[in-house]
Amino acid sequence: MELIRGIHNIRTQHYGCVLTIGNFDGVHLGHAEVLNGLLNDAKKYNLPSTVMLFEPQPQEFFAKDNAPARLTRLRDKLRLLAKLGIERVICISFNQQFANMQAEQFVTEILINKLGVKALTVGDDFRFGKRRQGDFNLLTKMGQAAHMDVKSTASFRQLNARVSSTLIRQALAEGQLAQAKAMLGHDYAISGRVIHGWKRGRKLGFRTANIALKRQVCPVNGVFAVQVTLNDKTVYGVANIGNKPTFNGTRALLEVHLFDFAQDIYGQFMHVELIKKLRDEKKFETLTQLTAQIATDVAAAKQCFGLN
Known about the structure:
- GO terms for molecular function: ATP binding; FMN adenylyltransferase activity; riboflavin kinase activity.
- The protein is built from ten helices and 14 strands.
- By secondary structure, the chain is an alpha/beta fold.
- The chain has two domains: 2-162, HUPs (Rossmann fold, 3-Layer(aba) Sandwich), CATH 3.40.50; 188-304, Elongation Factor Tu (Ef-tu), domain 3.
- The two termini are 42 Å apart.
- Helix 7 (165-173) packs antiparallel against helix 8 (177-184).
- The chain is elongated, with a radius of gyration of 22 Å.
- Strand 7 (157-158) and strand 8 form a beta hairpin.
């Protein structure tokens, strides 16, 4: 899959495509419906299937720390989009200059002149341009004049409820991992490179591999039984996601204790799937209490995987 970073990197060879636009946060089953329509258009017109998304996501740009918790970072989005068969992703830097672009200018200069979009698939609630003045009706009107087929994909429905990133965030916040998985189409996961932490875990007898949560708000918090992919191998463990209140931590962190594992993996990439929530994160008065609780968590996670 080809990644184009920024409007300035769109070249003449990228002219001619079928396109969909959105955040695709989580790349859930609702998104899969939109993307299936895109892939069908790609076959129909014999043109590359192309996804346009934004970094940061628009709500993160405007609302900062008050933005909804992000489900997936860019790397995870790209992995999931590639798995669905998308050929090309255009990642637009969402900054003040882009936010000030008029809706008509966006359609004319980027969609028509730069990309030569033959078919455009967007959600029925898609809004764009300065002050969100652009909508589906504008796209349809301008598309007709440019011979660009514009169509809306109806919201995917499951159990009579709309599949959305908002509902997935709610399920994750409530610890309903099975419900989130049903909407995502896969287990919710966090991935990243292992960093050096405080090394408190090894002093307590439970070494951890740590991943910094580089997002403004995290959608999950607590202790989980996890399945980890590391160097193409599967390892099981127990993870804490939060701010380590017992140690008065302030930075959100994913800490994973891997069962029967003692390798040095600093700097390596780790993919962590949350399988079952064991409990909420809490502050303990003593390290003895914390150590006892971790031992209980380890036993519960091992039982989840049939490892006891």
